Amino acid sequence: xxxxxxxxxxxxxxxxxxxxxxxxxxxxxxxxxxxxxxxxxxxxxxxxxxxxxxxxxxxxxxxxxxxxxxxxxxxxxxxxxxxxxxxxxxxxxxxxxxxxxxxxxxxxxxxxxxxxxxxxxxxxxxxxxxxxxxxxxxxxxxxxxxxxxxxxxxxxxxxxxxxxxxxxxxxxxxxxxxxxx
Length: 181
Ligand code: ZN
Hints:
- Helix content is 24%, strand content 28%.
- It is an alpha+beta fold.
- It has four helices and seven strands; from the N terminus they run H-E-E-E-E-E-E-E-H-H-H.
- The longest helix is centred in the N-terminal third of the chain and has 14 residues, at 27-40.
- Bound molecules: zinc ion.
- The site of zinc ion has 5 residues, from helix 2.
């Protein structure tokens, strides 16, 4: 099932997101629907609030970038109740986009390396270090679970320059190649 994607301006993207337990209904189905929704929109990551659910779940598939970073071959994962418990001091600049901010791309600075604990869709525990593009996409999606959008992280100057676009998102004045709400 493909969900419509929630666009900037909706309170759903700013709400608190709750951890889920093993009793959460049909987690496997939710995760598959999130992948399907993400692929339909040509995204590399999608967080639950972007489909209107305020829970701490996101999915990432950066396997298409495996051509340039061999360790990304087959990198398709679901992250449940994640906790980034370490971030490197050094940061990297990377041009980001977001399905909730259609057709907006801006350079964002983030820690180059992170360490994170999480559960997969079978509630198995994981603990790993990520760098490169994996760290980039994971931190972007993790921010969604904290109610943070990449536009929040821009310099005051850049934010001023895109203010009109953000206002238009909130007013529904934008175009997207996928279903939104
Ligand atoms: Zn996003």
